[in-house]
Design brief:
The protein is built from 4 helices and 2 strands; from the N terminus they run H-H-E-H-E-H. By secondary structure, it is of the alpha+beta class. Strand 1, helix 3 and strand 2 form a beta-alpha-beta unit.
Amino acid sequence: VNPVAIYKRGHVPKAKNISFNEIESYLPKNKTARIIFYCMNEMCSASHQAAETALKAGYKNVARMSSGITGWLKQKLPTEVTK
C-alpha cells in the first residue's frame, strides 16, 4: 500500500501495488488466502488500515508487515524492481 514511485524502486517479490481506496477490488475471491499488507515503515498506517478492511470483509488469514519495505530492505531481503 505504497505510492507507485516507491513500489517501482523496489518491492517484495511478487507483491502487488494497490491503491488504498481500491483495496477491496484487489482482494482475492478465496477468503482464506494468505494476505500480507505493507507500506513504507512503522510510521505508515496504510497497511494497518488495509488489513482492517480485509478483516472486516471476512478474510481470515490477514497479516501486515509492520516494518514495511524499509524493514525488508534493512534485512537485505530480495526485492523486485518495476520499470
